[in-house]
Specification:
Length: 243
């Protein structure tokens, strides 16, 4: 079953991060990801930020060979400018001095994944899209972590959940608890055997181990109370056998 995913890679060498750093008021999103040859045009949407400053940053970027302003759309939420960016160098050439396993980077392009939106930040890229299964997610996570770059999971949901989601309002968790559970899951705290300790999770969350333990225990209690019939209050589905 497919997964809906959002995750962030903290690699400042990724394309257009220099533009995001130069014009922090602008929000840049990339609709098209380069293929293995690295020269697929990027369709970039820019919200906010002075037009002249953004275009000067494009001109100064080592990644940008050419760019063209395709149009501007405006509404009550603000102005969106659309650009086509032709890379000056391939994706691998852009990252060659920052990534050791270039073959592994190329292999990610062949994974069964549809990344339909990338938000460019000064620190890296935030991805959103669909993955075939957990193995594909692990391939992305393990690659970037093996290269020494931060990998932060924001959302990982089965595609068959109601409305494609169900993890941000009906799970009984507070925002902090949800982040703690996701971080623990991502690091491998719930794996058997564990591949991360409580101290590892706490360090990632930048809190003490005791606070992390309490947050995870409260989250587990909330999940049990929300999803498990603990005292007969929730009627059993007669179509499902008792297990």
């Amino acid at each position: 079953m497919g997964l809906i995913v959002e995750f962030e890679v903290g690699c400042e060498a990724l394309p257009l991060t220099d533009v995001a750093r130069t014009v922090p008021a602008a929000t840049l999103t990339v609709q098209m990801v380069p293929h293995s040859d690295g020269h697929t045009p990027f369709l970039v949407r820019v919200v906010d930020g002075p037009t002249a400053a953004v275009e000067d940053a494009f001109a100064d970027s080592a990644f940008v060979g050419e760019y063209a302003h395709l149009g501007t759309e405006g509404n009550a939420a603000g102005e969106t400018r659309r650009y086509q960016v032709i890379p000056a160098v391939g994706f691998e050439a852009q990252l060659g001095d920052h990534v050791d396993d270039l073959e592994g980077l190329q292999a990610l392009a062949a994974e069964d994944a549809t990344i339909d939106r990338i938000e460019v930040t000064p620190e890296g890229w935030r991805y959103a899209g669909w993955l075939a299964d957990r193995e594909v997610f692990d391939a992305f996570r393990e690659f970037w972590q093996s290269e020494g770059y931060p990998f932060r999971l924001h959302r990982l949901t089965r595609e068959d959940r109601p409305d494609g989601g169900g993890d941000d309002g009906d799970d009984g968790l507070t925002d902090r608890q949800r982040v703690a559970v996701r971080t623990a899951y991502e690091l491998g705290y719930f794996e058997i055997p564990r591949s991360a300790s409580l101290d590892d999770v706490a360090a990632e969350l930048d809190i003490s181990a005791s606070s992390c333990s309490e947050r995870l225990r409260r989250a587990q209690t909330a999940l049990l109370e929300t999803h498990v019939d603990l005292d007969g209050r929730r009627p059993r589905d007669p179509s499902r056998p008792d297990t």
